Amino acid sequence: MKMNPFYFVVQRSSHILFSFIFLCFLFSSISPSFGYDPLDPYGNITLKWDLLTSDTASNYVRVSMLNFQKYRHIEQPGWKLGWDWKGDEAIWNMLGAEATEQGNCSRFKGGQLPHCCERTPSIVDLLPGTPYNMQTTNCCKGGVLSSMIQDPSKYGSVFEMTVSSATKAGFNMPENFTIGVQGYTCGDAVPVAPSKYSLDGRRWTQALGTWNVTCMYSQFLASTTPKCCVSLSAFYNSTIVPCPKCSCSCQGLPGAKCLNSGETPSLLREIKDKNREPPSLVRCSEHMCPIWIHWHVKQSYTSYWRVKITVHNQNIVKNYSEWNLVALHPNLKSVVQVFSFNYEPLSQYEFINDTGMFWGIKFYNDMLLQEGAGGNVQTEMLLQKDPGMFTFREGWGFPRRILFNGDECVMPPPDQYPRLPNIGQHDAKFSIVAIFFSLLLMMLCA
Ligand SMILES: *[C@@H]1O[C@H](CO)[C@@H](O)[C@H](O)[C@H]1NC(C)=O
Ligand SMILES: *[C@@H]1O[C@H](CO)[C@@H](O)[C@H](O)[C@H]1NC(C)=O
Ligand SMILES: *[C@@H]1O[C@H](CO)[C@@H](O)[C@H](O)[C@H]1NC(C)=O
Ligand SMILES: *[C@@H]1O[C@H](CO)[C@@H](O)[C@H](O)[C@H]1NC(C)=O
Ligand SMILES: *[C@@H]1O[C@H](CO)[C@@H](O)[C@H](O)[C@H]1NC(C)=O
Ligand SMILES: *[C@@H]1O[C@H](CO)[C@@H](O)[C@H](O)[C@H]1NC(C)=O
Ligand SMILES: *[C@@H]1O[C@H](CO)[C@@H](O)[C@H](O)[C@H]1NC(C)=O
After folding, report:
1. Burial label, 1 (beta-carbon count in 10 A; 0-12, 13-18, 19+)
2. Are residues 50 and 185 both part of a single domain?
3. Per-residue confidence (pLDDT) for residue 400, from 0 to 100
4. Entry pTM
5. 280 lines ligand 5 (CB under 6 A)
């Protein structure tokens, strides 16, 4: 059988064309646009301040903190809210949270002193198990906020406080908000329509005033070094493509600490401060990442294929509770079944639907334990081969992006992906057409 050479060229270049459209898409989706995440364009943490009562002596305020992010969560040690009072306000009382410092209350004479007199208070959530008389509904989770998709019942925190100023009547909204988690910046308070409350759904009362403060995440601000990397393998090729060397750090660099296998950390006991994020201490590897994800194309059936994803914790001093993983792959629109993880598509655009979020099953594998024998979680998923799209060629079976707990993971370079054996030889015409298309597309991309 003889093949029409032109036909061959066209077919091959359409593959290249696809790869380039794809790269275009990839570049545009990871361009470092400040604070904008195409996978979750409206994602934000909103602080809502409701002024419930106000008289000459004091104001009663309810502050709600809601995590409107699809896949980013606030993990331990939790949020730590801060702001600047514009006057000489003091917090007399607080339910559902507490100020870390009382501050200088010497300007108040008499018996009872305020809860906090600082101009820039620092507020933390109470721990689970707080006595009922100090709680509000939806408080006391130790500052941990789940993502909207992962656990909609735990994406908010609420606390209440009595505020008064000695020199000014009424309530003056503070400014310069921070939530104490790396990578988030908060905007100004904006007055919005007052919140309404009802006990029975028949009669509604409303807040005297409501303000929203929006806080956004930017990975660029959070940290310049990646926290995870991806390795790849496939049943059709015995090569395992490892995480790129120095993905997260390099052995031997100043400040890059790691432990060789067999060594146990001697400083483990010293770093048990619950209020602080434990420093990362990883098992020595070429990539030096605390999280290493392996994507294995495991099997091919007539109309399905199977992928196995393993998440390894390489951090010796950290358990990741309520971890999550986001993957981009064009075939995720045809997921048939995901075993031992929860799965939910994150459709960014209705017509693409190529992104999905995976997370652990409660009490089974929602906690990714520290490095060691149990320090990994894994899933297998079954995908339908979409006719006209599915192929094992050109690394199509591998993910385009992986994020762990909202942070981008380092992928091996595409030209190193495990290849199908005996790919057809490239001929000269093919290369010319390919180069032409590449240039064209690069121009379109730019
Ligand atoms: C914050 O998220 C909510 C819920 O998705 C959305 O309604 C709101 O518009 C977002 N705010 C901003 C400023 O993006
Ligand atoms: C203000 O925040 C609340 C949630 O706390 C949200 O439901 C509401 O849509 C926000 N309003 C505006 C105008 O962003
Ligand atoms: C808020 O921050 C700005 C800039 O740091 C500062 O000039 C201003 O005084 C702060 N506001 C208050 C009320 O302290
Ligand atoms: C505490 O505040 C008072 C005035 O409110 C001031 O005179 C005093 O110096 C402050 N003390 C300290 C230690 O800052
Ligand atoms: C991680 O969890 C295991 C089991 O619950 C516990 O034994 C271990 O101390 C935890 N490690 C850290 C660093 O919290
Ligand atoms: C995306 O795919 C999932 C199946 O994985 C499906 O349930 C969902 O409806 C799809 N969404 C869109 C917008 O096509
Ligand atoms: C397996 O993939 C590697 C990496 O792309 C490639 O160098 C190698 O030739 C492939 N092996 C076979 C048998 O094709």
Report:
1. exposed
2. yes
3. 94
4. 0.81
5. no
